[in-house]
Amino acid sequence: MARPPAPADRGIDALMQGYDGQVPGASVLVLKDGQPVFRRSYGLAVMEDGTPASPSSNYRLASVSKQFTAAAVLLLAEDGKLGIDDPLKKWLPSLPAAADAMTLRHLLSHTSGLLDYEGLMDPADTRQVHDSDVLGLLEKQDRRYFAPGSDYRYSNSGYALLALVVGKASGSDFASFLRQRIFLPLGMANTWAHQDGVDDIPDRAYGYSRMEGRWQRTDQSPTSAVLGDGGIYSSIDDLARWDAALYDERLLRHRSLQLAFSPATKTHEPDVPYYGFGWRINGGALWHSGESIGFRNVIVRYPKQRLTVIVLSNRNEPEPYPLAVGIARRWLDPAR
């Protein structure tokens, strides 16, 4: 059933003015105490035919996907199918000796020292790589950035490998596991770890970039088919269901949620004093952004205040994190 529109908010509409009209758009959701207090879309999901963005528009989440990858690993740990401190090579034995000391915990917290797979790709090869191709690239590199556990470096490689581990430990494949164990049980029927030729994304928003003074479609890149680090498509309406599940044990046990939301390592990144498992931690805020060619997204949660702000956009700029924090302040500090 379609939800009724949330009340208008002139302040948020003014902040979102640049997304409105015949331009790549955005969808914004503010949840307070589990209820949508602002839910609105702006601009276009598909510029070529003028399809407007809507709360059901499905955007490529990019690295916002990482929280689902982490949740899949935690679910399998609850099932007894794997251990968070399992050696990575227990599951991916073809990796070289440089990975000997790496554990799944290191991958979840970006402390593995794995090389970035993007830097290992042949720039002349425009074919899309998949999670298994990331493994193939890393198999040939018997080196790492630092000793596992000794430092933090944000790693798409680690989350691509975690998707492969989920497949092996579950006896399924990553996309099917997410679908059957997370998306469908939570009622996120239109959320997919997208595989071209396997599934069709309903209400799909396509990505665009501003180039030479005009918007051009830039929906896919050679890394867009890697699932574990950023391949999920979802909408603000489905993400509301995800947010609700993070307050109770309908999906993960309390202990697993605490693991995801607790500082696992310090970072050097702005507004990210700590990283958990698939979540950035900044005081009382849990958040994650997602940046991919043609998409910029963010989810910011304030669990103690039961406040969440989600901004999904199908354009290459601007970064929506400051915007989401500004929106959140309207509820965190009503006197502003």
What do these coordinates show?
By secondary structure, this protein is of the alpha+beta class. 27% of the residues lie in helices and 19% in strands. An 8-stranded antiparallel sheet has the order 2-1-15-14-13-12-11-10, with helices on both faces. The protein has a 3-stranded antiparallel sheet with strand order 5-9-6. Strands 3-4 form a two-stranded antiparallel ribbon. The radius of gyration is 19 Å and the shape is globular.
Question: Secondary-structure blueprint of this entry?
Answer:
Layout: H1 10-15, E1 26-32, E2 35-42, E3 44-46, E4 51-52, E5 59-60, H2 66-78, H3 88-91, H4 104-108, H5 131-139, H6 156-170, H7 174-183, E6 192-193, E7 208-211, E8 214-217, E9 232-234, H8 236-245, H9 254-261, E10 265-266, E11 274-275, E12 280-282, E13 285-292, E14 295-302, E15 307-313, H10 321-332
Antiparallel strand pairs: 1-2, 1-15, 3-4, 5-9, 6-9, 7-8, 10-11, 11-12, 12-13, 13-14, 14-15
Helix pairs in contact: 2-6, 2-7, 5-6
How would you concisely characterize the structure shown here?
This protein is 27% helix and 19% strand. The protein has 10 helices and 15 strands.
State the total count of DSSP E strands.
15
**How do the strands line up in the largest sheet?**
2-1-15-14-13-12-11-10
Largest sheet: 8 strands, antiparallel
| Elements, N to C (H/E) | HEEEEEHHHHHHEEEEHHEEEEEEH
The average pLDDT value, as a whole number, equals: 96
Q: Rg to the nearest angstrom?
A: 19 Å
Low-confidence regions: none
Looking at the chains present, what oligomeric state does this protein adopt?
single chain
Number of helices: 10
Helix content: 25-40%
- What global shape is seen? globular
Task: Kindly estimate the percentage of residues that lie in beta strands according to DSSP.
Answer: 15-25%
User: What structural class do you assign from the helix and strand content?
Assistant: alpha+beta
Cα distance spanning the termini: 35 Å
